[in-house]
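Friendly challenge for the regulars: who can give me the structure tokens for this chain first? No prize, just bragging rights.
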Amino acid sequence: MRIRPAVAVTFLTATLSVSVLPATAQAADRTAADATTFSNVVVNGGKDIVLGLTTRKTVTITWTAHDPEGVVASWAYLWHGRNTDDADGSLPLFPPSGTCVVSPTDPTTSTCEASIGVDAARDFDHNGLAGAWNVLAGAQDTTDDWTEIDAAGTANFKRFAKVTVNASPEPVKKGRTITVTGKLTRASWGSGTYTGYQGRSVQLQFRKKGSSVYTTLKTVTTGAGGTLKTTTKAKTDGYFRYVFTGTPTTGPSTATGDFVDVR
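First reply, four minutes later:
Bragging rights claimed.
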């Protein structure tokens, strides 16, 4: 936690980032008990942020700031790395002040929100940025004291994945063997291409014609280049698909069902 005393600047000018405000010693009369606290920090509604190669989206951060003196302004941004000084990713580059609403029943508590634009092509230049990011939350109280918490919350960025499927032969006689192939790839932010995802578990599922429910037949492991191949017996008309449930760094993907006519 960093606590800053009053400084002779206005809050967050258009050209000054919170991340470069000068660090100073903790004010002698400012104890941890008096500092601003942050709670209910939620990014993107609590959902993972899955990015392809050119994905652009707006991500919302919401939080509650509480200070015994009352909150004048509050802000939040995302960062990735060992610490804020050595961060290899920061979103946005120039954090805006959050829009805060003071509680009608508690003047010491404010509910805040900030929206940031995320551009995968601009902001994510290597795959090491996939995974957990931290939320830095800060606030200024009515006595001009500043408080920042480096890890007030977390967000999870994932690489977009794609899985394909092809079941053959079509049509096929009942009881004959069906070969189901496919491929699992994911966005490589470093190379700007989709690359094969090897050694991952993918479910082969089947939905009988006329039904809306898929059933898992088996689990298949991707081979070199993310390739998928397995066999099953033809029993009845229906749809085959591969389903990848994702990993801590890669989003889930479900192939569109491939219909096989069984005669």
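Residues 120-123 form the longest helix (4 residues). The domain at 2-158 is CATH 2.60.40 (Immunoglobulin-like). Your move, everyone else.
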